[in-house]
Amino acid sequence: MPRLLGPAVAGTVVVALALPVFLIAGWPLTGWLLGAVLWGAAQALGLLLLRLPLGVGHAGASGVVGVGMMFRAIAVGIVVIAVAASDAALGLSAAAVYGLAYTLELALSLTAYFGSPAQ
To answer: How far are the Cα atoms of 45, 68, 80, 83 from residue 48, in angstroms, in the given order?
Structure first.
């Protein structure tokens, strides 16, 4: 099982719960859809990268994982900025969906990492 799968699931729940909020508030559903697609694509890339072996004996694979994880955030940022340049409401709503899910995932990941006993 991939490491830290729980925080990713929690982020996915945030994305799912954002849909009714968008419907009730009358915000653009295409913004929610874009945020959800970006979230899903970033998570899929993360799961793919976590299948690579890590550690001292696998320096090349560890480097690929590190660069790939940074690329996820950069790619999402580029897409959101490009969309916001043409439609501010769409870009802002997509950024809000992705940003809330990412913030929860990061908070839970940090809590799990720093809250676990030292090995």
So the answer is: 5, 10, 23, 26
User: What CA–CA distance (Å, rounded) separates 103 from 7?
Assistant: 10
CA-based nearest residue to 100, from 39, 48, 45, 56: 39
pTM given for the model? 0.85
Radius of gyration of the chain from its Cα atoms, rounded to whole angstroms: 16
d(CA 95, CA 28): 12
Q: How far is CA 31 from the centre of its chain?
A: 15
pLDDT at 119: 64
- Cα–Cα distance, 113 to 116 (Å, whole number): 6
State residue 1's pLDDT score.
Answer: 40
Tokens 């900025």 — which residue? 81
CA 90 – CA 113 distance, rounded (Å): 34
Residue 40 to residue 107: CA distance in whole angstroms: 19
d(CA 90, CA 101): 17
